[in-house]
Amino acid sequence: MSKKVRRVKQTVRERRERAAASAVPVTPARRPRGRIRAVPVEELREEYAYVIKDLRRIFFLAIAMFTLLIAANIALPYFL
Predict the structure, then answer these.
(1) 10 near 18, Cβ under 8 Å?
(2) What is the Cβ-side half-sphere exposure of residue 57, based on CA atoms within 13 angstroms?
(3) What are phi and psi of 11, to 5 degrees?
(4) pLDDT by residue (tens digit) across 37-72?
(5) CA 41, 47, 58: angle at the middle one, nearest 5?
(6) Residue 41 and residue 23: Cα distance in Å, rounded?
(7) Residue 10 CB contacts under 8 Å (≥ 6 apart), including other chains
């Protein structure tokens, strides 16, 4: 078991001074100079078509699992 170490709590002022002394000057982030291009909906649909397919597959699997659970809940008490 390791030995406990007592630390003296720092005041808020000491913490601020310590942070200010060790702080690296931060430059503001630059915005891109070009305009942001609006992407047409058709292009997004083509690019992310696989997402719709995956969501549809997950939906049908979830429905099948819930149906199986409900059927098992109804049928199993008769067999046990």
Answers:
(1) yes
(2) 6
(3) -80, 165
(4) 788 889 888 989 999 999 999 999 999 999 999 999
(5) 100
(6) 45
(7) 18
H-assigned helices in 1-80: 12-22, 41-47, 49-79
CB contact at 8 A, 27 and 19: no
Task: Report helix, strand or coil for 77.
Answer: helix
What is the Cα–Cα distance from 73 to 39, expressed in whole angstroms? 49
pLDDT of 21 strictly over 90 = no
Place of tokens 């083509």: 46
> What residue type is 8 in one-letter code?
V
Please name the residue that has the structure tokens 């503001």. Answer: 28
- Tell me how far apart the alpha carbons of residues 26 and 20 are, in angstroms, rounded to a whole number: 12
- Could you tell me which residue, 75 or 35, shows the higher pLDDT? 75
Tokens of 1: 């078991």
For residue 41 the two structure tokens come to 């909906």
